Amino acid sequence: MRLILAGLALLSAGAEAQTSRDSFAQRALARALDDRCALFTEMERLALDGAYLQVRGDLLRDGFSPQDVDSSYDRIIRNVGNRPCNDADVQLLADDIRSAFAAWQRERFQNFMGAPSLWQASRPYAYDSWVISTAVSDAPVLRAGIYQLDGDSALTVSAPASTSIASLALVMRDPAQTPDLHDPTLGGLLTIEGLPAWTHFIPPADTARRHLPVSRQQLEDTDMFRFADATLQALIALDPREAIRIEAFDAEGETVFVEYLGVGDFAAALAFVRSSRDLSAGR
After folding, report:
1. CA distance 172 to 169
2. Helix or strand (DSSP H, E) at 232
3. DSSP codes of every residue in 125-151
4. CA distance 90 to 39
């Protein structure tokens, strides 16, 4: 079987004629060959990783288990183990991806699966702006994502400037403590007050990790709560089907509100942003 792949379909959200399994096999094949043969530049590799993460998320949302997906990837690695790096088909694959990357990198904006709203990603400019963002709630108006401020990009949650909100906490499942997704509804059998309709998977009460912001800065009428890189890495490590909890507190430590944010394809959105030469921070 030839290794010639479908050009831009490797880096786009997916060609209509392809199933998620087809796209996964293609992108996994390219990653496996790159791991062994170092076919691509850092930027090309980031783009390919983002495309792979998108389709992996699609498979999980379609009902495939992480174990099934990872086993398929392992089989692909084994199947290309004896393919010479200078094989003509391998080099043609690499040429196709490089050509596709050149066109794909000219895309300035791309949307990624999220909840309750899509993640909106854009190539960063020199000025302060969201490079990844999503609407968490309307009242209060909350946004979350990656905000570039004074050349520094950080995971950020924004809220209307308010004397009632002293701080925020991001509460996440800790995969080291709770390897499997936490579903308090037992597959939909139970009704949990406050649980978002778009997922059953929320942080467990006993083993979840709480992440506090490292800074709070006010921009006009908005407070920007910015988090450490360790919090960003913890978010990337989560399953795209689950949610994190956003808790707001007043100066006395009393809860002001609680909201949920779906992980979705945040990691793929980050790969899209980081594959731009314009991003100088957060690498």
Report:
1. 10
2. helix 229-236
3. -SSSEEEEEEEEETTTTEEEEEEEETT
4. 9
Dump pLDDT digits (tens) for 195-228. Answer: 999 999 999 999 999 999 999 999 989 999 999 9
Provide the token pair at 188. 């939909």
Cα(66)–Cα(64) distance, integer angstroms: 7
**Which residues are CB-contacts of 19 (< 8 A; sequence separation ≥ 6)?**
none
The Cβ of residue 266 has, within 10 Å, a number of other Cβ atoms equal to 29
Strand order in the sheet with 142-149: 109-112, 119-122, 129-137, 142-149, 152-160, 222-226, 215-219
Tokens of 5: 């792949």
DSSP 38-67: --S-HHHHHHHHHHHHHHHHHHHHTT--HH
Q: How far apart are CA 185 and CA 188, in angstroms?
A: 5
Looking up tokens 């990357």 gives 101
- Entry pTM: 0.87
Residue 213 class from Cβ within 10 Å (0-12 exposed, 13-18 middle, 19+ buried)?
Answer: buried
